[in-house]
Amino acid sequence: MSEQTIVGAALLGILEGLTEFIPVSSTGHILLAGHFMGFESTGKAFEVLIQLGAILAILTVYFARLRNMLVTLPSSIATQNLVLGILIAFLPAAVIGALAHSFIKEVLFESPILICIMLVLGGFVLLWVDRWAVNPKYTDITRYPTSVYFGIGLFQCLAMIPGTSRSGSTIVGALLLGADKRSAAEFSFFLAMPTMAGAFAYDLYKNRDILSVSDLPIIATGFICAFIAAVLVVRKLLDFVSKRGYAMFAWWRIIVGALGLIGLLVWG
Question: How does DSSP assign 30-56, residue by residue?
């Protein structure tokens, strides 16, 4: 294992943390960056396993609220509704992700052109939704109807195509179903916890026979860097989107996708 590999893992970990909770596709970014850097991980496990760092970032930032939810769960209808809503939204991705795991990792993860196209297309969708002038029906994530929770879960399944973005698909879904921008981003945070934890556990299980001790320093480096970067993003994102919306992230997607396509055409 070379020093260059560790540096590459650190850079990709930082990229994961910075992009996981904004609607630009963290997986698409690290797969594209890894492609141009020549970074190869065992079974493409690194790209999934370092997401645990981002999960712990949410747990750190939201610790007080999560603890309060745990305490009030037996008696609070609002907390019960939110927990049930998260489980409902999580189910579609859990089922489809398990059934399509091999296709996602062996086909979709290996297609940088597809990633670039989805980044660009997703950027235009985000621009359109951000400018969509509709008065939101829902501003409190504990009061979403069951149909909205389930609908957001269906939208999350689109993120199995790398370049689409898990946070982007859930936020767009929530906005289209009547949520305001702040609560859409907040629910995306909460839904990320079971979704990413499930993806981590399932991918670790599927790759248990090919991962070795030599992979641990690379994964640990990416994990730590992802955690630090994600903490910074989670602390600031809700206030940012409340004031400025998602247009900046839409243009980010379009520019990165276009540059990626140019890079693929020039360097292959």
Answer: HHHHHHHHT---GGG-HHHHTHHHHHH
Contact indicator for 108, 158 with CB cutoff of 8 Å = no
Sketch the domain layout of the chain as residue ranges. 3-267
- Dist CA 189 CA 100 (whole Å): 24
55 contacts 193 by C-beta, under 8 angstroms: yes
Of 134, 225, 210, 147, whose CA–CA distance to 176 is shortest? Answer: 134
Task: Count other C-beta atoms under 10 Å from residue 81's C-beta.
Answer: 18
Q: Phi, psi at residue 161, to the nearest 5°? A: -85, 110
Q: Which residues share a beta bridge with 138?
A: 179
Residue 210, C-beta contacts closer than 8 angstroms, at least 6 positions apart: 42, 43, 45
Write down the pTM of the prediction.
Answer: 0.86
Per-residue pLDDT tens, the chain, 268 aa: give them. 555 588 889 999 999 999 988 899 988 899 899 888 888 777 777 888 888 888 888 888 889 999 999 999 999 999 999 999 999 999 999 999 999 988 988 888 888 999 999 999 999 999 998 887 678 999 999 999 999 999 999 999 999 999 999 999 999 999 999 999 889 999 998 999 999 888 888 888 888 888 888 888 888 999 999 999 999 888 888 788 878 888 899 999 999 999 999 999 998 7
Angle between helices 247-267 and 26-37 (to 10 degrees): 30
* Cβ–Cβ under 8 Å, residues 52 and 223: yes
Q: Give the separation between CA 159 and CA 47, rounded to whole angstroms.
A: 14
- Euclidean distance between the first and the last CA atom of the chain, given in angstroms as a whole number: 26
Distance CA 67, CA 57 (A): 15
- When computed from its CA atoms, the radius of gyration of the chain, rounded to whole angstroms, is 18
